[in-house]
């Protein structure tokens, strides 16, 4: 494989302009999360092949683009990994895969599937510890903390697993006003949270104009980062929301298996979901996706395909949680997804995608009191608080018995996992790291 290079720009707008120009001049490019040694993962770099390096340099110089630089895209290795595993009771196949991880080689679908199927205590321990080491070398020990405001539980979709689906009898439907949302935003800003996640069902009440007005107000009053999670939209809408100030977009793929996707999403189309992810990438969003573990009919091979999708799409943030049935839905009697398989998926995703943010999801905390701690010790590096106002939050039940993660429980999970709190959090004395 020939050497790849990455172009690091000073801003997202510069990156998009440079990428557009390079493509117009027949330079093959890809947009990927910025390697941690060159900046934050939650930004995007332009990847090019060795054959196009000279041409790209000339084009950017002639276009008067000021870039931070064009750097070799180094393979992330784990030096000394095999030495650390020498006393472990592991199979030869496991050893061979770990040798590839040590040298930074890409894993095949069969190898990813093998890791997802490991069951022995020794191999599980080795898998989680290797993923945790990869996490430490790439993003360090500080756990990123974000917070979600679930501002509407109306939805025009009928996803079979979802507790706020169209037609589902939820306790009470609600929509928050702009002022109510802003009250929550200001409270998060007060405790130091840097990014607010605005999440809802696919609710047409919140038009493009309404969302743009809200985004601009948040930026004007707090300058916080904004993650939107409001479902499938058109390219033009995504573009307008980005131009208004949205930074990140969360649109989970849920599964890349076409048959399972159709089974769980009777009124959605997998190819359109993929197209949305591509649009978000092209528009320069910090692109977030994720899947559910334990969906009806799902195999380890399907999860392996999901992981390869994240890598190929250049996803920045990947949320992986167990399927949890929701009362009143067509899937309410299906079995819950496995915590162990979820943790394996987190670990393998870290080893394959490497340079990404992986949250220890709320869903894990909802089925295992120590679920978030376990995920943080298996490759995850972020947490999301549930900051929906108390009078509404019990009605936003995508799945039943949801754990309402607050700042105290997040701090506890971080402490218990032996990880570090971000310095931007403004905590009281009882919450401070010892």
UniProtKB/TrEMBL annotation:
What organism is this sequence from? Alkaliphilus hydrothermalis
**InterPro entries linked:** Aldolase_TIM (IPR013785), BATS_dom (IPR010722), Elp3/MiaA/NifB-like_rSAM (IPR006638), FeFe-hyd_HydE_rSAM (IPR024021), HydE/PylB-like (IPR034422), rSAM (IPR007197), rSAM_sf (IPR058240), Se/S_carrier-like (IPR021778)
Which keywords belong to this entry? 4Fe-4S, Iron, Iron-sulfur, Metal-binding, S-adenosyl-L-methionine, Transferase
Residue ranges of domain Radical SAM core in the record: 141-361
User: Signal peptide location in the record?
Assistant: none
CDD domains annotated for this entry?
Radical_SAM
By what name is this protein known?
Biotin synthase
Under NCBIfam families, the record lists: rSAM_HydE
Q: Which GO terms describe its molecular function?
A: biotin synthase activity
Q: Which PANTHER family is this protein grouped with?
A: 3-METHYLORNITHINE SYNTHASE, BIOTIN SYNTHASE
The broad enzyme category this protein falls into is transferase
Cofactor names: [4Fe-4S] cluster; [2Fe-2S] cluster
**Enzyme nomenclature, EC number:** 2.8.1.6
